[in-house]
Amino acid sequence: MLRKVLPTSSAVKVARKCVFRNASTAAPIRPRICIVGAGPAGFYTAQYILKHLDNSDIDIVEKLPVPFGLVRFGVAPDHPEVKNVINTFTKTAENPRVRFLGNLCLGKDFTLEELRERYHAVLLTYGAEQDNTLNIPNENLQNVLSAREFVAWYNGLPGFENLNPDLSGKSLTLLGQGNVAVDVARIVLSSVDDLKKTDITEYALETLSRSRIDTVHLVGRRGPLQAAFTIKELREMLKLSSCTTRWRADDFDHVEESIPNLPRPRKRITELMVKSLAEQAPNNVPPAGRCFQPIFFRSPVNFVGSGKVEAVEYVVNRLADGRAVPTEQRETIATDLVCRSIGYRAVSVDNHINFDARKGCVNNAGGRVLKRNLTGSDQTIDDIEDKYETGLYASGWLATGPTGVILTTMNNSFGVADLVCRDFNSNTIRLNGSRPGLDLAGRPYVSWHGWKAIDSEEVRLGQAKGKPREKLTRIETMLQIASNASD
Hints:
7-stranded mixed sheet; 14 helices; alpha/beta; 6-stranded parallel sheet; about 20% strand; 20 strands; Rossmann fold; about 30% helix; disordered N terminus; FAD/NAD(P)-binding domain; 2 domains
């Protein structure tokens, strides 16, 4: 529902671990916590706190009307099993001690100072939503996009429904070899009939059905032994119907002899690449159907084209102690569309956040947000005494940078949540009075009931098309549906 404050709990629970009381009265004071961001980091943090800090109340504040962040908007539509974690997040959100407050944005609808005044603790978990760039000539040519934009487009992130990537050419180049880049390659090279069974957006399906792209280059600056994609994603590409994987044999010089000394995960994926290389047809035999071509030891130095990208110029690298070192050699490879996939960075949405713009994350020590002006005895981060903002934390990619998978985020968030619980239990966060929570008067927010109404409508629309759901992409539509929801 929209524009209504829901009670945080219908009854006061009997504390099992710790009950906080006001020194002057017998009435218990409930720790009130605000989590900014309803993605995996936010939900995992809430899950842990609910279990380990009795009588705490949690508000999860999200700028979109819908929850789940990258699980909803980042996970590939043909990986529904990864999205099963939504079931766990839903149980957390439906705990009577939790409120979901969607359509409210830090830095726009409220300030960090306001949150810190109205809650005992604030956790910033709003992720990383800005692309890293290459900063090379002609990067602003038409048809040079980011993989993040492309993923947001086919996954229905509001604001990207009109991206309209140009798939009329014959080739796509992905710069970067992580799983996000492989996801984009797989979606572009997959059969539309297979994608119709997923929750990919209908407008993306229509565009992909008209796609003429038959070759996808996956370009990395280092070699096969340093490839960032995982074995699961590589297996999926190798098994893709009507698609041939074509390796460059020269990229694998001396790779096979290194296999016995590799750690097991790296050994398995290298063995799979070498096996695929050995089985591929000779280079003089053109691939049948679509082609996936990983290319190693190349760093882009220039986009070539007049108005629209026509090719990418690369410097050829060699490895030195695992690092890519440029040589004098160059190679130019024609392409019709480019997607950068070289990582993300967070942004500062409030000028009171101690933010490191160079690293693209909040300045923190293990999840505790550091003060801008350190006050400890030796002015070093190692001496953490009196150097962090009491009651202010960060977790997930906003704290660590965009690294790892959902499991990585879970472990990080549990660790930060444990700090929060310990800081309450040790009285580092003093419960010197109750806190009112966010003032919602006049703020058109979406409650969990509102989200459930949106969810039901998406499922209904999807069922009519034989899909698990058809995501709504217009925020105005979401808000209208939420406003009509009832308790």
